[in-house]
Every structure is written in C-alpha cells, then in structure tokens.
Amino acid sequence: MKNRLVFFGLIALAAVLATTSSIAAIIPNAAAFHTFGGTYVVNIIPGAAQQESLYHYYPPSIAVPKETEVAWFNGDPEQPHTVTSGNPGGQDSGMIFNSGVMSYQYFFQYEFHQAGDYPYYCMIHPWRLGTIHVSDEVVQGNNFEFSTGTGSTWNLLEFDRNLLKFEPTTVSLEETTPASYYVSIVDNTTKQTVHNGFFPSTNNLLIELISNDSNANQTITYGPDRASTIHSTPGAYHVQGNFVKTGATYAINVVLYSVDGKPLESPPMDRFQLKVAG
Length: 278
Known about the structure:
Blueprint: H1 2-18, H2 30-33, E1 40-44, E2 57-58, E3 61-65, E4 69-74, E5 84-85, E6 107-111, E7 116-121, E8 129-135, E9 138-140, E10 144-148, E11 153-155, E12 161-168, E13 179-187, E14 193-201, E15 205-211, E16 220-222, E17 237-241, E18 249-259, E19 262-263, E20 269-277
Parallel strand pairs: 1-4, 3-8, 11-20, 15-17
Antiparallel strand pairs: 1-2, 4-6, 5-7, 7-8, 9-10, 10-12, 12-15, 13-14, 13-18, 16-17, 18-19, 18-20
C-alpha cells in the first residue's frame, strides 16, 4: 500500500513540475484521479472561491473532439463549487449538465456527444466561468481515425489548446488492452521534427497541443490526466511549447507500436495534416 501511494504521489509531482509556476498548485492528488473515468480533467483550483483569484476552472477554455468525457475535480480546500451549463441567470442554466454542489475532492464528469460551444459557471460563485468547444470533424486514415477539438484548422486566436484523438481502426483493441503509440509532429515547410515521443494508452490516444507564447524553445510533455491502470484509458497527455507557428501546416504521424507489451510486426501507421491559423 505504501509503494502504491508513493507511485501516485510521484505522478502528481511530475504533473505539477511540468506546468508553469503560476499554476503549479492546481493538480490534485493523483490517487483521486484513479477513482474516475474522465479522459480530460479540468481542475477547480485552490483559492477559486476568491474573486481576485486568477483562475477558477483550469484550463478555463478547452477544445475537444466529440465523445470526450470531461471530469471536473474540486481541488479547492473547504470550498463547495458547481459545474453548471449555460450562463448565470440564463433560462438554459443547468439544462445540459449540472454537478450539484461538489465538496472538496469531489468530482463531476460529462461526455460530450454533440458539436458546439458549451459555456458553464459555478452557481455558488457565478462570476466564475468556463467554456468547452466540441468539434465533430473526423478524418479517416488507412489505419486510424483522427479528430481534433478545432477541426482540421487550429485558429490560435480562438483556442490556445487543441485536443487530438487517434483511434485505431484496423486493429481491434479493448479499453483494458495496454497499447503503446509513437507520435511525431513535422513542420511541412522546414521538414523538421518539432516533437516526437512514445505514449502508453489503450484503445485510443489523446494528446492536447498547447500553444506557448514564450520565446523559450523548450517543449514540455506531461500527463496522463489521471493515474493509469491496466483497466482503463489513462486520459489525455499534454504537449506544451512554442513549436506551433501561425500559418504553418504540420504533418502528424502516428504509429501503433505495441499491443499488450508486444511490438507489432507490421505496426499500423498514418499521417494527418493540421493547419495553424490566427
């Protein structure tokens, strides 16, 4: 039991260190992640009840593909919060989803099946707002289905985050089947690989690209959003950097490298295109 807690603690620490110092305290205990099935986590940060707090929901605005399950985790000690669809005082308030009152370390999750824009807020602190943009655009490759939160064009003026989803179509995988994917992102103009790496997951892979306006050349990878188990998809990974350039087009290569710990003799692979505007 002690080793298990240490393992969860190391995962939580790695996620915190991977973010900027201003949001370092928003990642809740990874052991809590183990208890729910959300594939993308939005945190209610410590101090969120205070009006002067920079954030309430973090990230405050995300773009995800259809069928993404978002989980909100209340990490604000001793403070109740809600996740309520619509706008404060609106007639549609709470009609799509409503968490009810969430105590500290409680969570709420909702799966988005329809494309559109979903504003939401906290009924207890109605000045706290969040938005979720859902895209239903899907590209069918030879071996994978590819979808993103913004569609085939990522407008950086609208979204600084974009969740990508890769789902194998020629290899049948269960949610309980461990699989390893290799993903590389290549600038079509310079032909340079701007990011690459292996990502363990199961029957699909979620990677969120985050545009970083800083001049630093460092690319940070962190995640997954909850403690991985052999019984469920671990959730989204995140790749943050200034590698995303307005007007560029990127080739995103994905390979299903191994299944259940065994490398595939003829690994399925595909190449997709992502245009960046803004």
